[in-house]
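Subject: sequence -> structure tokens, single chain

Hey, anyone have a minute? Need the predicted structure for the following. Not urgent.
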Amino acid sequence: QVQLVESGGGLVQAGGSLRLSCAASGSRFSINAMGWYRQAPGKQRELVAHMLFGSNTNYAESVKGRFTISRDGAKNTVTLQMNSLKPEDTAVYYCNAFSRGNTYWGQGTQVTVSS
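Reply:
Had a minute. Here:
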């Protein structure tokens, strides 16, 4: 089992920045991929950024050049640095981890970008 706890959401004006963090606990050493997804009201959950440990990272086209995903292996934390935020980035952001064939989700953190 893996537990994920997100932090760092909030309210920011357009053009501002936020930093989201996701801390993994439990069977964290079995995790081989982590990422961030988001879900806006009335929309489906979508991939924002994904990191396969020791391999590549992927970003949604809408966030490329603005968002950066990174990992602190010692702390088993994944961070999403979000710059140049836009109102359309407003959503609940969820941390995701993949371990031993199972997918785990955090509880979500709200990001609101005002125009």
